[in-house]
Design a protein that fits this description.
By secondary structure, the chain is α+β, with helices and mostly antiparallel strands. About 55% of the residues lie in helices and about 10% in strands. The chain contains six helices and four strands, in the order ααααββαββα. The chain has a two-stranded antiparallel ribbon. The chain has a two-stranded antiparallel sheet with strand order 2-3. The longest helix has about 30 residues. The chain starts with a helix and ends in a 6-residue tail after the last helix.
């Protein structure tokens, strides 16, 4: 508590996270494990508000884990910034997957003019792109899709541009909308 007021405040607000302070290894989970864990918990939530809460709690828990390692000097600065970046990557990957699922359920699956399913990718810019995030960094992202076309099979079909615009909006809501967890 004397080293970092923000971390102390997080522990007071989330006392269940006190287990992170116990001695022993606080390993840095691989990206795939973080994504799978976050997706499983978010998908088990009933509504978008509850899902946003899952994303907030995930971030808080992971930043506390990284922060404890940082405060105890268990990791180098490079390892800490890489770990923070991995948490952001996991959140972005899970949010992108969930946003695609939500939009596909409403609008159908996007297909290009060639008839193949459209693909999209999220690119990290700035500090995240360099795996140099700190505790208060923002995320600079770019989402690109491969070709114009339309969705198929949804309640309301639309063009790929609108589809991926809605995916972006869904991602931002999952990653940034306020919840009772922060």
């Amino acid at each position: 508590f004397s080293v970092s007021r923000p971390f102390g405040d997080l522990l007071v607000a989330h006392p269940g996270s006190l287990d992170l302070l116990r001695p022993g290894p606080r390993r840095s989970p691989p990206l795939a494990e973080l994504v799978a864990s976050l997706l499983a918990e978010a998908r088990a939530s009933a509504d978008p508000v509850a899902q946003a809460r899952v994303f907030r709690k995930f971030r808080l828990h992971q930043l506390l884990r990284v922060g404890v390692n940082d405060i105890l000097r268990d990791r180098s600065l490079e390892d800490v910034t890489r770990d923070i970046s991995r948490v952001a990557d996991a959140s972005i990957s899970a949010a992108f997957t969930m946003a695609i699922e939500r939009c596909s359920a409403r609008l159908g699956t996007p297909h290009g003019a060639t008839g193949r399913p459209s693909r999209a990718a999220v690119f990290a810019l700035g500090k995240l792109g360099g795996e140099e995030l700190n505790y208060s960094s923002d995320l600079d992202l770019l989402i690109l899709y491969d070709e114009e076309g339309h969705t198929r099979g949804g309640r309301r079909e639309t063009d790929c541009g609108e589809f991926f615009s809605k995916v972006t909006t869904e991602m931002v809501q999952l990653l940034a909308s306020p919840s009772d967890a922060g």
